[in-house]
Known about the structure:
Structural class: alpha/beta
Amino acid sequence: FNAEFRLEVEHATFDVKQMGLKDSILTEISAVASVCPFVLTEHATHCIIRVLKCLRTPTPILIDGDEGCGKSALVRAVAFLTQCKLESCSLTPEADPSLLIGQYLPTDGNNANPIDWFDGTVTAAHKSDCWVLLEDLNQAEASVLERMNPILETPSTIVLSEKGDDTPLPHRENFRVFATMSPPDLALRGITSGELSPALANRFSIIHMDNLTTDSPNRPENVRALVMGYVGNEQAAQL
């Protein structure tokens, strides 16, 4: 992630190094609302600013909040606004480390080798020097979380030991790890979410994302913005 990176959209300029540090930031983010594929409500914009502040350090970012509150969409919105490519995968109790790192698999008949190595999501993101989003991190088994430990260090280290390598992959400047999780013991599609160990949680900059509830500040304005984003200004005025 380049701290000096500047993004110009419809003549609106973003200085990522200063994002979240100046009073005009809400106006600047709103300037690209018409081309952003996300509804940038005031609630969402404040969450985006918190993520941008965390991006000033190389620490992985964990966003926690209730199921369906928009955690993954928040990361995708930030990736869009900063023009960063984002890879993602959803973790479940059935996921194993190969989903993230990679594995040897049979190839089709057109390949000279009957078995070849295929990169996992994290490895592919690292080689592409982009961001990776791990959804429902606390759903993963201990073996998956343990394999992620060196990747979550600062700086991250990836050794494809499953491939037989013993040399770390070259450092990538823009590679960043994002993760989401729902609160522990929250029933999620019939599965009980686990709790991250303190040692693992301490590797992240943690951002809590609230739901938009009846008690939320400026709720009418946020709901109005959502309606306008989905149905358009003219249709929203008729509601």
